[in-house]
Design brief:
The chain is 31% helix and 23% strand. The chain is an alpha/beta fold. The chain has a seven-stranded mixed β-sheet with strand order 5-4-3-6-7-9-8, with helices on both faces. Strand 6, helix 7 (172-182) and strand 7 (190-195) form a beta-alpha-beta unit. Helix 2 (57-68) runs parallel beside helix 4. The longest helix has 13 residues, at 109-121. The termini are far apart.
Length: 258
């Protein structure tokens, strides 16, 4: 037997038979009707280790908050969303008159393409004055590609959106770094950080993010506490009230408050 034949036999040993792996889960869809009447049909990836296959409570509640405060936070503003998943807050903000909207999540091909599909599906609902783009971004990495989407007279984003990201405890410092590098240093600029403690026994670790934010030069103000009607993960353990509660905070620059 030749060495070539032996190579073919060896490689065949490690090939799984057809159907060995389960097929990838198909995409799912969630519909959300905005306060202004538009209905968004949001595509969610079938499954993703980065949890992009859920429409999170934090994203839904921060979208409501953006609507309630659209005159000061959305209309004519530059908006950046981190860890956007389906992109609900960003798309809604663009519909409500944001100037430039940058929708980001980890540069995973499926996640980024899914965000693009949701943005493209909503194009007909956007006013001519709104510009919305999708990009992959790793928290803590160079933000120049994000800032490049802004007009030349803009020195940063007016409003940042972070919805249900704080369970990534090891990434808190990277998140704060990205906020520092992208939030415009001017009165009125703020980051919205909304989250639910889905693992209540780690609530203190979730809240540790805000200690880092304070150390990083931000004033932290709680603006929302809403109890949702249903649990997202009913079979999980831990305090059910906490697992249904969305907490919302604003981060603003300390030195601009003096």
């Amino acid at each position: 037997m030749s060495s070539h034949d032996e190579d073919l036999i060896d490689s065949a040993i490690f090939q799984e038979p057809p159907g060995y792996y389960p097929p990838p889960k198909p995409a799912t869809f969630e519909s959300r009707t905005l306060q202004t009447g538009e209905t968004l049909r949001l595509r969610l990836v079938g499954h993703n280790p980065l949890w992009g296959h859920h429409l999170w409570n934090g994203a839904q509640v921060v979208t409501d908050y953006l609507y309630d405060h659209r005159e000061e936070l959305v209309q004519g503003k530059n908006i950046l969303e981190l860890g956007a998943g389906a992109g609900l807050p960003s798309i809604a903000a663009a519909i409500w008159g944001a100037k430039d909207v940058v929708v980001t999540d980890y540069p995973d091909e499926d996640l980024v393409e899914n965000m693009r599909m949701n943005v493209d599906a909503a194009r007909d609902l956007l006013p001519c004055s709104s510009n919305i783009v999708v990009q992959g971004h790793v928290w803590g990495a160079d933000v120049k590609p994000l800032l490049a989407n802004l007009s030349s007279d803009s020195r940063g984003f007016d409003t940042l959106v972070l919805a249900d990201l704080l369970f990534n405890h090891s990434q808190h410092a990277a998140l704060v770094s990205t906020i520092q590098a992208t939030l415009a240093r001017k009165v009125g600029a703020l980051a919205l950080v909304f989250f639910t403690p889905y693992t209540p026994w780690k609530f203190d670790k979730d809240m540790a993010f805000f200690d880092l934010a304070r150390e990083g030069g931000f004033k932290v103000t709680r603006v929302v506490k809403r109890v949702m009607d249903k649990l997202m993960f009913k079979d999980d353990r831990g305090d059910e009230l906490l697992r249904r509660t969305v907490f919302g905070y604003e981060l603003t620059w300390n030195e601009l408050d003096r």
